[in-house]
Amino acid sequence: MMNWNAELYDKKHKFVSNFGEDLVSLLHPQRGEHILDVGCGTGDLAYEISKSGATVTGIDAAQSMIEAAQEKYPHMHFSVQDGESFSFEPQFHAVFSNAAIHWMKNQQKVVQNCFDALLPTGRFVAELGGANNIQSIVEAMKTTSDRLSILYDETLFPWVFPTKDEMSKHLENAGFTMITIKHYERPTPLVGEEGLRNWLEMFSNHMFNHLTNDEKEALYSECERILRPQLYKENGWVADYWRIRFIAQKP
Ligand code: BEZ
């Protein structure tokens, strides 16, 4: 199980939910609907959805995230549940997920769990990192590990970034009818001079937990040096994000 620093996430990675706001528009939640948010993090988008008058349940595998969500939004319902193993009777009008499914290894199972939780004609609206996502950052982490003789353990790589075909297959295998799916490049600004370093500190920690603080510092500095020509633009760091976004429907 990964450790998530909910406070750091809210302080320095707010862009994750800011970008998700137009996904909420696509979800188009309605008063009276029951909606499940899979991988809800600290609950900001679940709260956005609930402003429509829909009743939202947020689930996340990380207890620290759910505790933070519950503290911020005490009137809402959150619970610690893993995307690969949760199970609900069919009761939701919609399932929503932003920037979460790429943290889940068995995406076929996740999609099946979402299908099973939906009422007939329910919709599944989601976005996740797709093929090519953060390719230059991953390459830089590998090159740096090599140069600094740091162990880079592929088995700890926490993400799966599917192609559009792979995600379409998961959805169709589960029984969904595809409404729309697209794979697109979405350069993502990382706020401030320290943007890339903050990103590495928050998200690569799962792979580099075995390092001392000094070793981590060296890793971050070398990644910055390697990536500056490619990812440092006029207004600061911009990560090479690619997304898969889809709407699918249960028949
Ligand atoms: C993403 O949203 O694409 C992402 C975030 C953190 C780590 C890896 C990918």
Topology as a string of helices (H) and strands (E) = HHEHEHEEHEHHEEHHEEE
| Spatial separation of the terminal alpha carbons | 34 Å
Structural class: alpha/beta
Query: What profile does the largest beta sheet have?
Result: 7 strands, mixed
Structure, explained:
- This protein is 40% helix and 24% strand.
- With 251 residues, the chain is of the alpha/beta class.
- It has a domain at 6-134 and 159-191 and 238-249: 3-Layer(aba) Sandwich (Rossmann fold), CATH 3.40.50.150.
- The strands form 2 sheets. The protein has a 7-stranded mixed sheet, sandwiched between helices. Strands 7-9-8 form a 3-stranded antiparallel sheet.
- A hairpin with a 2-residue loop joins strand 8 and strand 9.
- The protein is globular and about 55 Å long.
- 41% of the residues are buried.
- Benzoic acid binds next to loops.
Question: What topology does this entry show?
Answer:
Layout: H1 6-12, H2 15-27, E1 34-38, H3 44-50, E2 55-60, H4 63-72, E3 77-80, E4 92-98, H5 107-117, E5 118-129, H6 135-147, H7 164-174, E6 177-185, E7 188-190, H8 195-203, H9 213-231, E8 232-233, E9 236-239, E10 242-249
Parallel strand pairs: 1-2, 1-4, 2-3, 4-5
Antiparallel strand pairs: 5-10, 6-10, 7-9, 8-9
Helix pairs in contact: 2-3, 5-7, 6-9, 8-9
Bound molecules: benzoic acid.
